Amino acid sequence: MEEPADAHFVSRTGIGRPSTRLLPPVDELHRAAGVLGAGSKVAMLVGAGAAGATDEVLAVADRLGAGIVTSLLGKDVVPGDVPHHTQQAGLLGSRPSYDMLKNCDTLLMVGCSFPYTEFLPATGQARGVQIDLKAKNLSLRYPMEVNLLGDARSSLGALLELLERQSDRSWQGGIVDGMREWDQVTARLAATKADPINPRLVFQELNERLPRDVIVTADAGSTADWYGQHIRLGRDMQGSLSGSLASMIAAMPYALAAKFAHPDRPVVCTIGDGAFQMLGMNELLTVKRHWQEWEDPRFIVMVLHNDDLTQVSWEMREAGDPRYDTSQLVEDMDYAAYARLLGLTGIRIEDPADVGSAWNRALAADGPVVLDVLTDPDVPPLPPHVTLEQARSMAQSLLKGDPAERRVIVESARSVAAELFAKAKHVVSREGR
Predict the structure, then answer these.
(1) Span 40-57, mean pLDDT?
(2) ω before 253 within 30° of 0 (cis)?
(3) Helix, strand or coil for residue 24?
(4) Which of 242, 285, 293, 328 is paired with 130 by a 20 to 30 Å CA distance?
């Protein structure tokens, strides 16, 4: 192009980016250290704003004897094998996360704007410290005693120098025990019989086979429930979904963006059939066009095929209304056959015994794969804590004539029984020690 002359309305820009290594004032860091050091039950709530500060987050948690909860968008900030990392909070979170936030005496939020305040400590229950690069996020969700405007890595690093090691590990130890029990619960829930395949099982089997450097995307809906409760991302893994807007169809463009940004890494897109029909099928044309350019050709799209907009169906029931077929049913089709039509690999899974081998085949493939998994829409996404109001609304919806009433009752009973069995097994095991 011809370089424009210096003149009015001609903008001459640069490519430099501002540094985000912002550090709060020293006196505020000392105040924050005083609050955190005085706590005996510290909970850390870590979000995507802490990306790049994994080591600092872990070091502060170790110094304080704290437990760590991550937001869905911050799931990959803390490795899934850290025993005091209880994964997510909220409706699709874990019970140890719920218990930690409801029983802590000190809350440290880092790079997080978790919006579901009913899962946070009660007002006045905990002293609070928050670190965020955005001033508008400070004290937005909880009344913090100390607000630190700065980036996570620099701020935590400076704070670490001011903290003394907490000698009492009973709080953190209890969190570890709770998470060990919860892992048994989720494994038991995944093994529960369904018709034909339990969607939890699909994610549980994936979690056991995640490649070291995989990037996983999840769609809004029930895929986000199973992603939150069953996927444990390692230090070199990444994962994302539409966190703020919770918009459907994000999983597929996120996965493609990940693949174009990292053509040398395997990508797994987990998506429901409703979102796949909206956009995923179209984006497979983009995959067809470009996949041979990728250094690592593994691009797996796992479709939860249940012919139902499942998350909204359960939300309707929770609101006390029956599910309406006219709004909730999705047109049935063969997604594996569609993949083969495009020259890609399509695998249809109808038997739970085939789920593990299907993942093995997909992860070993030398090109893109669509896993068309026939799953049960009536497996309930049980929250970690069921309120009386939620139970009442569910009962009202069934009494009004939900078309899947019998299946919902059966699958809910199976899930509750599986959870109780896992808890009992853990108690017996602990008493045996």
Answers:
(1) 98
(2) no
(3) coil
(4) 242
Q: Exposed, middle or buried: residue 257 (CB in 10 Å: 0-12, 13-18, 19+)?
A: middle
Give helix then strand counts, H and E, for the chain.
16, 11
Share of the chain above pLDDT 70, in %: 88
Tokens standing for 252? 């597929």
CA-based nearest residue to 356, from 185, 191, 219, 186: 191
E strand spans, 219-313: 238-240, 267-272, 299-305
CA 63 to each of CA 86, 193, 338: distance values in angstroms, whole numbers, following the listed order: 18, 43, 53
Q: Encoding tokens for residue 353? A: 């015994």
CA dist 297 and 367 (Å) reads 5
Q: Answer with the residue of higher pLDDT: 154 or 386.
A: 154
Q: What residues does CATH 3.40.50.970 cover in the chain?
A: 192-417
Chain region(s) in the chain for CATH 3.40.50.1220: 26-178
Asked if 217 and 247 touch (Cβ cutoff 8 Å), the reply is no
Encoded amino acid at 17, one letter: R
Is domain 26-178 given the CATH code 3.40.50.1220 in the classification?
A: yes
Q: What is the pLDDT of residues 205-235, one digit of tens each?
A: 999 999 999 999 999 989 999 999 999 999 9
Residue 275 main-chain phi, psi, to 5 deg = -70, -35
Q: Report how far residue 406's alpha carbon sits from residue 412's, in angstroms, rounded to the nearest whole number.
A: 10
Exposed/middle/buried for 358, CB within 10 Å: 0-12, 13-18, 19+? buried
**pLDDT of 397 over the 70 cut:** no
Res 413: pLDDT: 46
Name the CATH superfamily, with its identifier, for domain 192-417.
Thiamin diphosphate (ThDP)-binding fold, Pyr/PP domains (3.40.50.970)
pTM above 0.85, yes or no: yes
Please say whether the beta carbons of 210 and 216 come within 8 A: yes
- b/e per residue, 65-97, with b = 16+ CB within 10 A? bbbbbbbbbbbbbbebebebbbbbbbbbbbbbb
Query: Going by DSSP bridges, is the β-strand pair 238-240/369-374 parallel, antiparallel, or unpaired?
Result: unpaired
Burial of 292 (0-12, 13-18, 19+ CB in 10 A): exposed
Question: Per residue in 164-185, pLDDT tens?
Answer: 999 999 999 999 999 999 999 9
Three-class DSSP category at 166: coil
Q: What is the DSSP letter of 200?
A: H
pLDDT digits (tens, 9 = 90+) for 333-352: 999 999 999 999 999 999 99
pLDDT at 54: 98
Instruction: Give pLDDT, residue 420.
Output: 45
